[in-house]
Amino acid sequence: MVYITRREHFSAAHRLFLPENTDEANFEIFGKCSNPNWHGHNYILYVTVKGEVDPITGMIIHLRHVSKLIDEKILKKVDHKNLNLEVEFLAGKVPTSENVAIGIWNELADGIKKLGGMLHCVRLEQSENNIIEYFG
Amino acid sequence: MVYITRREHFSAAHRLFLPENTDEANFEIFGKCSNPNWHGHNYILYVTVKGEVDPITGMIIHLRHVSKLIDEKILKKVDHKNLNLEVEFLAGKVPTSENVAIGIWNELADGIKKLGGMLHCVRLEQSENNIIEYFG
Amino acid sequence: MVYITRREHFSAAHRLFLPENTDEANFEIFGKCSNPNWHGHNYILYVTVKGEVDPITGMIIHLRHVSKLIDEKILKKVDHKNLNLEVEFLAGKVPTSENVAIGIWNELADGIKKLGGMLHCVRLEQSENNIIEYFG
Amino acid sequence: MVYITRREHFSAAHRLFLPENTDEANFEIFGKCSNPNWHGHNYILYVTVKGEVDPITGMIIHLRHVSKLIDEKILKKVDHKNLNLEVEFLAGKVPTSENVAIGIWNELADGIKKLGGMLHCVRLEQSENNIIEYFG
Amino acid sequence: MVYITRREHFSAAHRLFLPENTDEANFEIFGKCSNPNWHGHNYILYVTVKGEVDPITGMIIHLRHVSKLIDEKILKKVDHKNLNLEVEFLAGKVPTSENVAIGIWNELADGIKKLGGMLHCVRLEQSENNIIEYFG
Amino acid sequence: MVYITRREHFSAAHRLFLPENTDEANFEIFGKCSNPNWHGHNYILYVTVKGEVDPITGMIIHLRHVSKLIDEKILKKVDHKNLNLEVEFLAGKVPTSENVAIGIWNELADGIKKLGGMLHCVRLEQSENNIIEYFG
Questions:
Q1: Per-residue pLDDT tens over the stretch C28-52
Q2: C13 touching F, CB under 8 A?
Q3: Which of the four, A36, E40, E116, F17, has the lowest number of CB atoms within 10 Å?
C-alpha cells in the first residue's frame, strides 16, 4: 500500500455565521471570521490517495488524472468563488474549513475509486497556521 | 545603510471591477477576479525599512516597533475585512495588489520616519505565484 | 472525526548534556549540540486536536481557543528562554526535541480536553531538517 | 513511542517508460514524463524512524547517524545520477516516485534497525505538488 | 513605478560539460553536475515586470497575460525536456542556471514590452540553495 | 552582470544587551531578546555574488566554491555557538542581526574577490518574520 498526494490551491471568500443569530452572537462564536462583509483565503488542498502499486507501470494512479478530477469536481466550483453563496456542495453548511474538507471528500471519493485508488485524506490549509485533515 | 524587513499577513475579501462597466466588460479586463460575489486571499506583507545602524545598540530600529505600527496602521484596517467596502485608505480605488501596496506605503511612510528609519519597500504576495513590490 | 492543527513558533536556547559526563563524553553522545556555551533554535510547533464536528457551528473547536491555550501553557514559558534553566516542565530532563515534545503534550492534554477536543499530536520542527512527532 | 524525521534532498534525471512499448504508448501511460531525452527533479526525502525515548539521553536515536546512513545508502547512489541507468536498487523498475520510495525503504530498513530504531515512513516529494509516502 | 512578479516552475534534465574536454576535465570545472548520464532539477522561475499603474484599472498588466506568455515562450520549450538537447534558445550554450536565466530573458523581453510592461528581472532557483538573478 | 546566491543555515545562541545597563534598561531597548539566560535562532543566510558570466563555462563562479568559503569563514565559527561569547568577528558588538550581517560581509568580501566575483549582498533571516540585508 502506497499513499500518493496531489497539492492544489484555490482562493475564495466566505463568512462564518448562523443566520438565526445576531452579529454579536456570531462574533462570540466565530470571531472576526463572522464579518458580514466577507473575507477570504488562499486555500491549499492536499488530496491523498492510497492503493497498490501496479507491478508493471510502477504507479498507483497517474497524478494527472487525480489533478484533472480535482479540477473538475472542486476547483471549478470553488476557485474565486464565495463559499457561502455559490458552492452547491456546501449549501446550508457553515463554510468552516472542517465542513469544506468534508464536502471536498464527498465530491471526490467516488471519482477516485473509479480511477482505481481509494481516497485516504483531504487536508485543507486555510492559512499557514490553521490546518484541517479529514479521513472519511 | 542596512535594510530590515518585517513579515506580516492578513486575510481579506475583494473584487476587481469598474462600477461603470458591465460584468462582461469587467471579466474581460480582470478575469475571474471580477466575480460579483467576491473572493479573497491570504496576503503576505513584507515591509522593508532602511537606515544606519546605531553604533551602540547595533540596531536600525527595533522590529517590534515596526510590527506595532503595521498592526495599528494596516492590519487592524484590512485583516478579515472587505477591501472594497471597508478600508478607508483604498476608497475609490480598484483593490488590485498594486493599489493595495501603494495604499499601504502611504499609510506607513510617515510613521516609519518617526521611528527613525526610512520606508524602502512594500512587498505584497497575493498568492505564492503573484507578487507586487512598490518602492515609493 | 476531523483533525485540526494550529501552527505556532518560539525561539529558545538549549544544551544537550548529562551533568555527570565530561564534555568529551557529552560530545560523543550529543555532538555539537552539547556546546557548554549554549546554542538555540527557532522551533515550529504544530498542535493537532481531533474531535467531532459540531453539526450547527461546523467546528470541532475554535482555533483561537487552542492558540490562546498554547500561548499560556507553552509559549509564555519557552519563547526567548533557556530550555535547560528556565522551563519548569522540562526540569531534570535533557531538552532534546523528543523531551520537549513530550513535555508540551503533558502541558496541553488536559486543557484541550476542557475545550472539548482531544489532543492527537504534538509535532516539533527544530529545524527544517529535524522533526519530532509525539502521539501520547 | 516517538517519531523522528530527517529531511534530505537529491537531484536526479529519470524517464518513465516501458521498453517494450512505442513512444506513443508510453506517452499514453506516463504523459510528458516519458520524454526519451530524460527530464529531472529535485527530490525531497523525509525518513521517519520510530522508537522509545532513552530515559537518560532523551533521544530515540541521534539524527546525525540517520543522516549518515541516508547519505551512504541513498544519496551517494542517486544524487546527480540517472535513476534509470545508474541506480542498482532500481534496476529493472520504472523509476516512478512510488518505486523510488519503496526502493529507498528497502535500502534503509535494516540499517535503521541496527541503529536502534524502526523505519516508519519514507516520504518523497518529487515536486511541491506531487508526494509519495510508503510505510513498508 | 511598480514591480510585479509571476512565479512558475518547470522540471528538466541537463548536463554541464564542454564537449572538447575529457570527463575528468569537466568534473574538475563543473563537479557532479557533469555526470554524462544527465541529472535534473525542479526549477522555480520568477519573472518580474515593472511599469506604471494604470490609474483606471489599478494594474500594470494582468498577470494572466504574463503567465500565458511565459507558458508559450518558455515552459512549453523547457518543461520535462533536456536543456542540452531539446531547447533551441540554449543551443551551443552550457545550460548553467546563468545561461538559462539569460536565455529566458532574451525570449521574454519583447513579448513583455508588447504587453505594456518592461522586463525587470529573471530569477531562477535551481534548488532552494542555488539562485540566479539577471536584470538584462 | 549576473547575480548568484547561495543559501546556508546555522543555529546559534545570543543575547542582546549593553553590559553597562541594568537588566531593566536592556529590556527597555531590546525586549525579550535581552533575557540574561540566552535564547537562540535558526539563521538562514543568503550570500549573493555578482559577476560577468564566463563565455566558455557559462558560470560566474562555481557555487561549491562559495559554499566552501562560507563554511570555512562563517559556519565553522557560528554554527551551534554562542554569538556573544565565542565568535571573534563579533567581539565587542551587540549580536543583533544587523551586526551579524555586517560581520559576515567583512569576513567574506575578500575571499569572494579571490574567487573572481564581487560580494553583493548578505541577507540574514533570523526568523521567517525578521530579515536583514546588507550591501556593503
A1: 999 999 999 999 999 999 999 999 9
A2: yes
A3: A36
